[in-house]
Amino acid sequence: MSKKAFILIDYSNDLIAPDGILSCAPTTLSLVPVVCDYMEKTIAEGNFVVVCNDVHQEPDKNGKGDPYHPETALFPSHNIKNTYGSALYPAVAEKWTEISNEYPFETTYFEKMRFSAFIGTKLDIWLRSRDVTEVVLAGVCTDICVLHTAIEAYGKGYKIAILEKGCCSTTSENHQFAIDHCKNLLGATII
Fold first, then answer.
1. Residue 109 belongs to domain spanning
2. Predicted TM-score (pTM) of this structure
3. Residue 78's pLDDT is what?
4. In angstroms, rounded to a whole number, what is the distance separating the alpha carbons of residues 141 and 12?
5. Where is pLDDT greater, at 60 or 130?
6. d(CA 51, CA 139)
7. Mean pLDDT over residues 84-112, rounded?
8. Whole-number Å distance between alpha carbons of 121 and 41
9. Domain count within the chain
């Protein structure tokens, strides 16, 4: 029997909290209850919940980021491992902890270092070992990490859905572009 997995991408303080380095607030704050409710709904239906969070190395003593990581040239240092910025946003962390403690085999957390949650993680094998054939994606930013994860999921043969009210971008135009791309070119269902 095939299953679904809800994959929550980059709900860290640096991207969600008003004081985050790359914050999309205030829009993101309205998304938090939506994703928390969807985590509960997914588990209640007998499916799986995955949290994938962007994590980077601390800059060197001169404040320079990893010269071998492509994001260093594109964004300021963010989601530095073991910092406030890389931690899950508190309300999401609370719900995640509650669910993952009660359902340890139906939940998992992956640190990622690239836009796609599939690159450099064991996400694909974790999903396949549970007979997951459909992924429901939510996260920040719709046009960056959610889109790249959706493209990778499509390439790996997963059916895709996007929880639109669980996603946002730095602009509404960027968000809409990504939603349209997922719908029109990846065949994603928009929830």
1. 3-190
2. 0.91
3. 73
4. 11
5. 130
6. 10
7. 95
8. 25
9. 1
